[in-house]
Amino acid sequence: MTTRVSFYVLAEQGDGAREAFACRLVDKAWQQGLSVEVRCQDEAAVQGMDELLWRFSDRSFVPHEVAPAGEDPAPVLLARAPLPRPADLLVNLTADLPVDFIRHGRVAELVAGDEASKLAGRERYRRYREAGAELETFDLGRS
Fold first, then answer.
1. Non-local CB neighbours of 135 within 8 Å, separated by 6+ positions
2. Given pLDDT bands bounded at 50, 70 and 90, which one contains residue 128?
3. What gap in Å lies between CA 77 and CA 75, rounded to an integer?
4. Backbone dihedral region of 83: left (phi > 0), alpha (psi from -120 to 50 degrees) or beta?
5. pLDDT at 1
6. 16: confidence class by pLDDT, cuts 50, 70, 90
7. Domain locations in the chain as residue ranges
8. Is the pLDDT of residue 15 over 80?
9. Which of 45, 74, 80, 121 lies at a C-alpha separation of 20 to 30 Å from 110?
10. Whole-structure pTM over 0.90, yes or no?
11. Strand, helix or coil for residue 49
């Protein structure tokens, strides 16, 4: 089975835009019954996503926890490194290509609207293509 990688190119710039969109994407995936791993760059980013998932919407609650999780983990896990069990959806908020992306059914790559983010996104796109992933792009900055 080939891993599908979806690139979401945002109009907004900066990590805050990526994190806000990640919350909406994670909420939608969880409501569809998918398990989700949100891969963060460092411990500060993990803690930031944890806080954001608690307060991003007053109409929604996303059951999540910071890895490592217990025996009965929440459907959404926040982590800095690959987890033992693959998720249905890996949301990559790091600057790197996840070394274990092939284990997940789907990967979401979020690219902010600034040029540095786009350049890094293009490099990850190239590396995914070389690895044989099924790629798709959603340009959310276009009307």
1. 4, 5, 7, 125, 128, 129
2. very high
3. 7
4. beta
5. 66
6. confident
7. 4-139
8. no
9. 74
10. yes
11. helix
Mean pLDDT of 110-114: 92
| Long-range contacts formed by 45-49: CB under 8 A, 24+ apart | 45/15, 45/80, 45/93, 46/78, 46/79, 46/80, 48/19, 49/19, 49/22, 49/23, 49/78, 49/93
| CATH ID of 4-139, from 3.40.50.970, 3.10.50.40, 3.40.50.10110, 3.40.50.300 | 3.40.50.10110
The owner of tokens 């569809």 is 32
**Which tokens go with 109?**
């790559």
DSSP 101-141: GGGSSEEEEEE-SSHHHHHHHHHHHHHHHHTT-EEEEEETT
- As given in the structure block, the two tokens for residue 10 are 């945002």
Confidence of residue 14 (pLDDT cuts 50, 70, 90): confident
